[in-house]
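The data are quoted verbatim here:
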Amino acid sequence: MKRSLALLIVAGLFIAACETTAPAQVPLGSDGRPLPVVVRINPSDSPRVRQRMQDGLNTMRAQNGLGPLQANAELASAAATHAQDMSFQSRPWHWGSDGSSPMERAQRAGYRGSFVGELISETFETEFETVNAWMIEPETRQVILDRRAREMGVGWHQDDNGKLWWVVVLGEPAAETQMAGF
C-alpha cells in the first residue's frame, strides 16, 4: 500500500512537472513579427536608470578585472544631447546633425579629460538589456573594457512610440591624462 501511494505521488508530481501552460499572446505587427514591448522611463526614474546603467557597466568591468566608472555631469550632458539628436536624425550613429564628433560634443559640454569612447543604441530594450547587447558585440565591448576609461555619462531619449535612444560617453579624467605624459 505504501509503495503504491509513493508511486502515485511520484506519478502525480511527474505529470504536474510536465504540464504546460499556453504561451502569452504576443501582439504581432502587420509584417507578422512580434511588436516590441514598450518600456516607459518616467522623469522621476532618471536617477535610478542612470545608476542601473552605471552599475551594469561596472559589473562587466569588475568581471574583467577593471576599476569602476564614476558618473560625470559633463559627459552625461554630451550623452543626453546626442541621444536627442539621434532621435531627431532617426538613425543611430556617432555624428551629430551639425557634423560634430563624440569628442567635440564632450568638449562642448565642458569635459576637460580625454574622450575614450561612445556607446549608442536605438532600441526598445531596457538599460540592462542594452548593456548586455553591448557586451556581446566586440566593438562596443572593447569600449566598455577600455582601461583608460574612469568616468562616464549616460543619456537617453524616448520617442512617443517608446523607442529608446541610448548614449554612454566614456572619458579619462584630466589629472590622469596629464600624469600619463610623465
Remarks:
- The mean pLDDT is 83.
- The radius of gyration is 23 Å.
